[in-house]
Design goal:
Immunoglobulin-like, FAD/NAD(P)-binding domain, 3 domains
Length: about 425
């Protein structure tokens, strides 16, 4: 049986950054397992710019960003296997994988980094009435068809959902000569970045209809049109608000789901809000020696933050292998105090979910999302009744990830409290 100190599941931006960081932290025996035919993951089809401003201080396309990390992987001599599907992972970190050259085989890992990314929510989750005609695509599938395969999904397009991929595809389809008639969004706010709304919709005169959804799809063999309707505060269509649009293509950008089937099978505790693993300050999951990062942990809006988070996971995995980090679980008190992070008052979730102050870096980044749009507000952090952070924010929206930094020195002495509370407060 093969043995590696660290095995990384996924060769996208998270997996590559984790591998590079683990090697720089001193681990020599590293293996990346990637199911696709090339490294880079979803970045290979993201040919628009806007990547790398935080990581490289310059604007890159998706393939260019991925190429920077691929070059580091090659330069550092990190081993990787393409076209390899991971079938199972045991709690003892025994990985069962399969590819055409080796068949089915097993690998024993000292530590594992989960970096499988996420997938798009499909039409089946939406319960839209109508037949199943040709012309209905997820936005990511359409992006791959246009940017990598050279196919045009259609010429008259309606997009349901205002996630970043949907917004970007509205611009991409327009540039390829299609007519994008409307982008509809069920929620009263967009699920994408503000800059994408401006650059992809406003600049091209594409209307965005908030609090609207598709109630009917016309056509039996091919999409011939759709019906949009306004929705009430419960998301139910309002009779009499229907509008018909003639189109041959419907693109769905209705959310991303972390790919955690493997995680669930091996017994990793999952967060009901993010659908990703519950992790501590080291990004270690509830299974000892298994770490998670990137979109498999929680859906990010910027790949630069994926790389930053993944580098932390890779470094901590390397420390785990070298026994630099004392290991304990959330329920164990053998290695010092465990403090849970409580999202409340508009904060939907936090990553990490709990911290062990003795194992923290001096300044730990806590990432989170809010559940609604807030203007002229504050992000506040409390230990008991003491407010230790009060950060002003002009606007906060669910489509944009937020972060605050916790100081280790402020938490080390907090022996009397078991929770840190993060909430939104009005100015």
């Amino acid at each position: 049986m093969e043995k590696y100190d660290i095995v990384i599941i996924g060769g996208g931006p998270a997996g590559l950054a984790a591998a590079v960081a683990a090697r720089k932290a001193g681990t020599k025996s590293i293996l990346i397992l990637e199911r696709d035919r090339e490294l880079g993951g979803i970045l290979n089809q993201c040919i628009h710019n806007g990547f790398g401003l935080h990581t490289f201080q310059e604007e890159l396309t998706g393939p260019e960003y991925a190429a920077r990390f691929e070059a580091q992987v090659l330069e550092l001599g990190i081993e990787y296997r393409l076209n390899t599907m991971v079938m199972d992972i045991s709690r003892e970190k025994l990985i069962t994988a399969m590819n055409r050259e080796r068949g089915m085989y097993q690998i024993q890992a000292g530590a594992i980094v989960l970096a499988m990314g996420c997938r798009e929510r499909s039409r089946g989750a939406l319960n839209i009435p109508g037949y199943r005609p040709a012309g209905i695509y997820s936005a990511g599938t359409a992006q791959r068809l246009v940017n990598m395969e050279g196919y045009m999904p259609g010429r008259k397009v309606v997009i349901l959902g205002s996630g970043d991929i949907g917004l970007i595809m509205a611009r991409r389809m327009t540039l390829e000569g299609a007519e994008v008639k409307v982008v509809a969004e069920l929620m009263p706010y967009s699920g994408g970045l503000k800059r994408n709304i401006v650059q992809c919709l406003d600049d091209y005169g594409i209307p965005l209809k908030l609090s609207h959804t598709v109630t009917d799809i016309k056509g039996k063999e091919r999409v011939e049109g759709i019906t949009l309707a306004a929705v009430d505060e419960r998301g139910k269509p309002i009779p009499g608000t229907e509008e018909d649009y003639e189109c041959d293509t419907l693109l769905l950008s209705v959310g991303l789901i972390p790919e955690n089937e493997l995680s669930g099978q091996m017994g990793v505790e999952l967060n009901s809000v993010t659908s990703g693993p519950v992790v501590n300050e080291s990004l270690e999951t509830s299974v000892d020696g298994v770490f998670a990062c990137g979109n498999v942990l929680h859906v990010h809006d910027l790949v630069d933050f994926v790389s930053e988070e993944a580098a932390m996971a890779g470094k901590n995995a390397a420390h785990y292998v070298k026994d630099y980090v004392e290991k304990c679980t959330e329920k164990s008190s053998g290695y010092g105090k465990v403090i849970s992070i409580q999202p409340t008052g508009g904060v939907r979730y936090t990553v990490p979910s709990f911290i062990r102050p003795e194992n923290m870096v001096d300044q730990l980044t806590i990432r989170f999302r809010v559940g609604s749009v807030y203007k002229k507000c504050y992000v506040s952090v409390y230990i008991g009744e003491e407010r230790i952070i009060h950060k002003k924010r002009p606007v906060m929206a669910p489509g944009e990830m937020e972060e605050i930094k916790l100081e280790k020195s402020r938490l080390i002495g907090c022996r009397d409290y078991e929770t840190v509370r993060i909430q939104i407060e009005e100015a």
